[in-house]
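Whether sequence alone determines local backbone shape is best considered at the level of individual chains. In the encoding step, the backbone of a single protein was reduced to a row of integers, each denoting a local shape. For completeness, the protein is quoted in full, as a sequence line and a line of structure tokens.
***
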Amino acid sequence: MVLLSLFVSCFLAATLLPGGSEALLVYLLEQHPTQLVALVIVASLGNGLGSLSSYGLGYLGRVKFRPQRRHSAANRLIERYGVFALLFSWLPLIGDVLCVIAGYLKLPIFISSVLIFLGKTIRYIVVAWLYLSW
């Protein structure tokens, strides 16, 4: 049940809904320190899949709406770095928008997924490491 609640929290935090999955990860690390690896993996999977749902919304939104040029910070990152901007999908506020824009622009799904999951996993590893070394 612990891992399921973490998965759901991380999934929802990666969508356009507000949420702080890092706080739950730290709390669960405090309660279950022997499950470090499982907690980081589940958090990364949940958050990565949540971001892919945002990618999917962007992809589907392209069918409904005509492409428009927007000069948001997320759009500038994608214009500058292309698909590699998705390494920053873990950033608060801008990360969710990056995933939506990536789907909207139909960036390659395989490399997008790899970069999203890589960024998310690195973030949770850093959060766990910072907590454990505190």
Notes: The chain has one domain: 2-133. DSSP finds six helices and no strands in the chain. Residues 40 and 124 are 6 Å apart (CA to CA). The mean pLDDT is 90.
